[in-house]
Amino acid sequence: MADILPNETIYIKNLNSKVKKQEMKRALHALFSAYGRILDVVVCKTPKLRGQAWVVFNEIPAATSALRHMKEFQLFDRPMVIQYAKSKSDAIISLTDDSYAPKEKRRKTEDKGVDKKRKDQEQPQANGATPAHGHVYGAAPPPVKPGTQEPNSILFIQNLPDETSGPMLEMLFTRYPGLKDVRMVDGRPGIAFVEYSDEGQATVALEALQSFKITANHAMVISYAKKG
């Protein structure tokens, strides 16, 4: 069998099939976005493709870095098996060929073309409207500069998506030495506390993950927790 050539898409198998599809997609996006811009994450739950996923990056070096660093990483208690995908993804082809559309979408796109133009003319600003107060919905508040705070081994995390879970955050912060605990706050979605063994280790994680985007609309805001 010929070797699979490096490309922008990585193929992942041995995923925990008990994890819900959307939760797995969010976890994979959060985990792999550290290596480059992600165009798409595909998770399959059909019997034949259960436990498998594809992550599409915008460039080959990002996919290569992710593959090298994340092989056998434990995700939801199972080591990921990662390799390059055998074929180029629709997302990548569409970037290099403006006329391309996935087969199953071409007919729908053609049928809806006229209707879409009409709607765009009737509501030219509907989708691009900016709130009167000047802030974009979902945008993160400005991060607090670490130098203005007293260092602490415990970090306070804000602006998380409501559906963020402890294991998802642990996957991000465990990359940095000294992680001791990740605590979500009951009844308070969007915030969490992450504890390291000492202040220096906490500072490394803070500086590395400040403004890291869990989703397109949620960049983490990290600060030192106030000492009691």
Which CATH architecture of the largest domain would you pick? Answer: 2-Layer Sandwich
- How many strands? 12
Instruction: Note the total helix count.
Output: 6
Distance between the termini: 62 Å
Mean pLDDT: 77
Order of helices and strands: EHEEHEEEHHEHEEHEEE
Sequence of strands across the biggest β-sheet: 2-3-1-6
- CATH C-level class of the largest domain is Alpha Beta
- Structural class comes to alpha+beta
CATH third-tier fold name of the largest domain: Alpha-Beta Plaits
The domain count comes to 2
Low-confidence stretches: 96-111, 121-141
Q: Give the fraction of residues assigned to helices.
A: 25-40%
Biggest beta sheet attributes: 4 strands, antiparallel
Q: Write down the overall geometry.
A: globular
The CATH superfamily title of the largest domain: RRM (RNA recognition motif) domain
Strand content bin? 15-25%
Cα radius of gyration in angstroms: 20 Å
How would you describe this protein?
The chain is an alpha+beta fold and 228 residues long. Helix content is 30%, strand content 22%. The longest helix is centred in the middle third of the chain and has 20 residues, at 103-122. It is globular and about 55 Å long. The model is unreliable at 96-111 and 121-141 (pLDDT under 50). This is RRM domain-containing protein. Its main location: nucleus. Pfam families: RRM_1 (PF00076).
